[in-house]
Amino acid sequence: MKARLDAIDWHILKELQQDGRMTNVELARRVGISAPPCLRRVRALEEAGLIRGYRTLLDEKQLGYEVTAFAMVGLHSQTEGDLIAFEQTVNNWPIVRECYMLSGEVDFLLKCVAPDLQTFQTFIIRELTATPNVDSVRTALTIRRTKDEAMVPISK
Prior knowledge:
Elements: H1 7-18, H2 24-31, H3 35-47, E1 67-75, H4 80-91, E2 96-101, E3 108-114, H5 117-128, E4 134-141
Antiparallel strand pairs: 1-3, 1-4, 2-3
Helix pairs in contact: 1-2, 2-3
């Protein structure tokens, strides 16, 4: 473990994962300490990089993004410079919501969200496969989401 956390720190992290919008007073009540030391602990966890940020999770389908798909990308070259160049390109594509470099037969896995199938197909044909160094692209459309746990499993 990179950081030394006590039971209260773990409890703070668990509570904030469940509801990052709660007030410091409410968080302090839930973890059993007063508000000032709770705030100091949260700030220390942020400064240490354990808390990377706070987000609101949106329902993509209700916002008109009907297609969630994955693209498995193989590159011609996996030199560090080529990997960095591909990652920089990916960062400019709003349709790509998550990107993972993998080991094995596939170099990158891209999670894509699009308003419709045509938009996703256009992205694959005009953007992804046309990108320098891209050797192969395989795609998979999701049928339904069966689990959505965006959080780290904290059992403490």
